[in-house]
Amino acid sequence: MNILILGSGGREHALAWAVKQNPKTDRLIVAPGNAGIAQLAECADIDILDGSTVVTFCEENAIDFVIIGPEAPLAAGVADATRAAGLLTFGPSAAAARLEASKRFTKEICDACAAPTAAWARFSEAAPAKDYIRRMGAPIVVKADGLAAGKGVIVAMTETEALAAIDDILGGAFGAAGAEVVIEAFMDGEEASLFILTDGTNALPVGTAQDHKRVGDGDTGPNTGGMGAYSPAPVLTPEIEAQAMAEIVLPTIREMARRGTPYSGVLYAGLMIKDGRARLVEYNARFGDPETQVLMMRLGAQALDLMLATAEGRLADARVNWAADHALTVVMAARGYPGAYAKGSVINGLDRMPEDSRHMVFHAGTALKGGLVTANGGRVLAITARGATLEEAHHRAYSMIDLLDWPEGFSRSDIGWRAL
Ligand code: GLY
Question: What pTM, to 2 d.p., does this model score?
Fold first, then answer.
């Protein structure tokens, strides 16, 4: 079959790597892709936020299956456009993707189905929002309602910080995404992610992971999109996973169907775990990045069969064939990230890297210039390894980094520390 994956990051490289291994794949196109993806698939530079452009491209290239990686095309209704054109699609409709695109919507769904989450309130005016913060006190969490490229969540440890976040968000720092603000009680505990495939009715967990959001060792410094991840997440025990499925995920899926907006695709549940119970922090309507890199390393070629079963509404019969393995990925970022960073530095040593079922370098932000791989983003590479233990995966990933010659890049040295 001919398959189109939308996106250009490490997540899409990992999806492409898994899909490519499946014998069902004849032709694989990734739009727009990146320098690493170009080594295993065709890349096409089209506007992936425009549904009619994507549909026309699919028709011209006899695409049988579309996999949508990032949230922006989902929120823009690209899955609606491809489904309306009769194309088999992996990814939720815009109405269902509101579980990521609107924090307020997610909280309303949680209230409607009694899913455990933090107490919350929403405001579109600064004065009542600030009164609420003064009443509740810090720590407190302030969120822009809409999509803000991962920057719209402020975990305020002081009241002053929370009040400033209100001014930022409602003052327009996040554009239309900040027309409303959601304020939530602070939840302490350990955060982990659960990934669930759902066809709107049936649900299949496809792995757990923990990522490292802070830029510096010991989880210090500013927040990033994620500096590394590992799977499975030991804190998400089978008992807690079962509780999260029963009290959070399945009620959400039923509520979405009841409203006439069934959710079909991957549901990424960010969970806070404390005293043996999980509460919902947030949903994302897509796979995580860099969590996908570790999930795909563990799932391999079966990922395509599972995504097809999701899109075709056949998940009731689907199973994951788990190996007793662990995967870990270390993100190499351009110096300066998550602040200002330079693009264009040459990355040497990639040709020395092993690439097999236990080692893989996924490209997150790279470009080919004059035949050389160059840095083209903040997060640039995800050095990923699999092992019988997390220690083995950790050792393999960091041994690969030793082979890299890229002085303009950096990584954390402690990915996996909580579990190790
Ligand atoms: N790693 C966090 C995310 O994908 O949103």
Answer: 0.97
